[in-house]
Amino acid sequence: MTSLLKELPSMSTILAAYASLSAMAMLIRTILNEMIPKPMQKLINSKFSHLISNYFSSNFTFIIEERWQAVYNETFRAVEVYLPTRIGPTTDKLLIGSNDTNNPTSLPKRKIPSDCKIIDEFEGMTLEWTLHVRESEKYYIPDKKTFHLTCKKRVRELVEQRYFPHIAKTAQTILSKREKLNIYTYNQDRSRWESAVFRHPARFETLAMEPELKQFIKDDLDSFAGRKDFFESVGRAWKRGYLLFGPPGTGKSSLVAAIANYLNYNVYDLQFQSVRNDADLRRILTSTTNRSILLIEDIDCSTKIAKDRDKVKDDQDKEDKDGRPDRPSSIDPGVTLSGLLNFIDGLWSSCGNERIIIFTTNHKEKLDPALLRPGRMDVHIHMGYCTPTGFRKLATTYLGIKDDKLFDAIDDLIKIVDVTPAEVAQQLMIKSDDPKAALHGLIEYLNMKKDKPEEDRTIQEEEEKAKDEDDKNDGKQRMKLEESETGSIYLS
């Protein structure tokens, strides 16, 4: 033992060797830092660290991105719904907030903030979740979000086969029992849908609509919602298109709200002004969820989509002939008719299930026929002026009465006066605490509208008469001018 100790190097020798090695390592490091570019150094370090961690670590990490190829990742959505229900004492931070403007005192909703760790237990496995957010350098590109799930390598297959299906089923159950609906609008600057709580009071029971039409719509919705297997068997996307057309104030928006409440579907309200081009439209629409309503209001106001292609061709021919456009050109091409059709009835229409697409317009005749055919707008619903049946429903809703001796007089006026349900409702609301006064006020309003067209016709006739007189005077002046010019030419 003594001889062995004598053969060991002294402490000073060990320290000298250590100093020499350290100096050599620092020299090599300095040379490498000078010779190898920074990006290459980072790549080498990351690869080396990854190799060491994989070799020595017993953990495995699943990464779930927000988008999966060209569409929204349904697994990401399921995790987003599931994780707030697994928040426990080990959670170190939490994001809370409320978008329910109708009930400011309601409990805030829970959301998972960036870098928050959530521990979940499933069938004896301990699973750790973390949300990572990488901010985008460009404002029009959304931030990249990913969920990381860390587990032991030995349970990796069990997590894939048992845990992820459990998350999907739980999320589906939560969504099917949701008590609040959301309405979404697209934020172009942030390139994402933003939501608010949707609490519209409209129900089919309160709509001022003919009972036969109400029942037809409800039956059609029930048939659509319960025919998943049928749509698959005939090879069609599980969607339904509705066109609501008619004058303003006839209840198109209220019918959309009633459909949403009846089916318990969220609403995505899309304004084409917020869409840059067809590619942007595809990305936006594939970000909507299943069991939802895509609402495109006043589609006739979007000339590139609504206008008949023959009219577009005529405008282009006129533009080429004149050498200048009728209106200022836009740098951004915007959404085209073909881009919209490709999503609602082309190959992209299969990217999603159980969706209602609703278009509204005040002028159906302005729409391209390609939009109107079945498969795109399957059901056309005319939202017309108020009828006696509609008035009685409004009287029951706003005044709480089902009959009155003034009803017959109002029915007779409504049959000959074009008045919208919104106008009738407004008149009844003015004096809803006094039903008699409200009915008399409505009669006065209807009589005023009945007399107004006669006044308008009289004014129009007087204007046309004055215009004819002006035309005659202009004609006489032109004749005198022509005679004067002719005489001048002749004399010269």
TrEMBL record:
It catalyses: ATP + H2O = ADP + phosphate + H(+). InterPro entries: AAA+_ATPase (IPR003593), AAA_N_dom (IPR025753), At3g28540-like_C (IPR058017), ATPase_AAA_core (IPR003959), ATPase_AAA_CS (IPR003960), Mitochondrial_chaperone_BCS1 (IPR050747), P-loop_NTPase (IPR027417). The chain crosses the membrane at residues 12-32. Residues 310-329, 450-483 have a biased composition (Basic and acidic residues). Keywords: ATP-binding, Hydrolase, Magnesium, Membrane, Nucleotide-binding, Transmembrane, Transmembrane helix. Coiled coil: none annotated. Residues 238-387 form the AAA+ ATPase domain. The keyword Transport does not apply. One of its GO terms (molecular function) is ATP hydrolysis activity. Residues 310-333, 450-492 are annotated as: Disordered. Its cofactor is Mg(2+). SUPFAM superfamilies: P-loop containing nucleoside triphosphate hydrolases. One of its GO terms (biological process) is response to stress. Belongs to the AAA ATPase family. BCS1 subfamily. This is AAA+ ATPase domain-containing protein. It comes from Hibiscus trionum (Flower of an hour).
